[in-house]
Design brief:
about 80 residues, 2 domains, three-stranded antiparallel beta sheet, 1 helix, flat
Length: about 80
C-alpha cells in the first residue's frame, strides 16, 4: 500500500490497487463522525473503449451510456 503524507495539513492518503484493477484511495479524517465515499471511474465521455479479459478485442460502449447509468444510480423506487 502506498502512503502519501501531507505534513502541512497533517493527513495521510493510502492508495492500493486491487487484483481486479480497482484503485482504492483512503483519507482518514479523525475528527469526523460521518463517513463519506467518492466513487470515480474511467468510464464515460472520452473513456468508452475497453479491452476486456486479457484479450485484444476492443469493446466500444455507445456515447451516453455513462450518463444514463449515473441517473439510474440515484433513481428512487416508487412506493406504491
Amino acid at each position: 500500500m502506498q502512503v502519501i503524507e501531507n505534513s502541512k495539513i497533517k493527513e495521510k492518503m493510502y492508495i492500493e490497487k486491487l487484483s481486479n484493477g480497482l484503485t482504492i484511495i483512503m483519507i482518514p479524517k479523525k475528527k469526523l463522525i460521518k463517513k463519506y465515499i467518492t466513487w470515480g471511474v474511467n468510464f464515460g465521455s472520452i473513456d468508452n473503449k475497453f479491452i476486456l479479459d486479457d484479450s485484444n478485442n476492443v469493446t466500444i460502449i455507445p456515447d451516453g451510456v455513462a450518463h444514463y447509468l449515473e441517473h439510474k444510480m440515484f433513481e428512487q423506487r416508487s412506493r406504491n
